[in-house]
Amino acid sequence: MTKTIYILNGPNLNLLGKRQPEIYGHDTLEDVAKNCAALGAEFGLETDLHQSNFEGGIVELIHEAREKAAGIIINPGAYTHTSVAILDALNTFEGPVFEVHISNVHKRESFRHHSYVSLRADGVMAGFGVQGYELALRRMAVLLG
Ligand code: DQA
Prior knowledge:
Elements: E1 3-9, H1 21-24, H2 29-42, E2 45-51, H3 55-68, E3 71-75, H4 84-90, E4 97-101, E5 123-126, H5 131-144
Helix pairs in contact: 2-5, 3-4
The structure holds 1,3,4-trihydroxy-5-OXO-cyclohexanecarboxylic acid.
């Protein structure tokens, strides 16, 4: 059976491509979905990308992933730096979890340097632009292959 990877995105990432393009670039979340779907297909992985502006929405998507996904790639946006609830939800998931940040959070304001999600993530990509999602997916394919 084809394995599914959930690609989860937090607040404001629906505006990717329009929001601060000097930091986050011009690609949209739809571009990310298309590129990941094409790359996943090369590895026999299905990708399912979701976005929510709500903390609880992301928690519920992680619960859904428990039933439907073999791995999670997550960019929690600003909730990265604040959300124990998202960390707790990820701790209920048994497969690999990769954290992605489009920008290099370590080069930015100090409040972006701490991530609750990193306490669970098996790997972190930061500062590789939207390509970070694809790099995480490549690693996912190795781990789940
Ligand atoms: C982000 C970095 C976060 O600090 C920020 O709040 C975001 C996006 C990134 O992809 O670089 O919304 O996760």
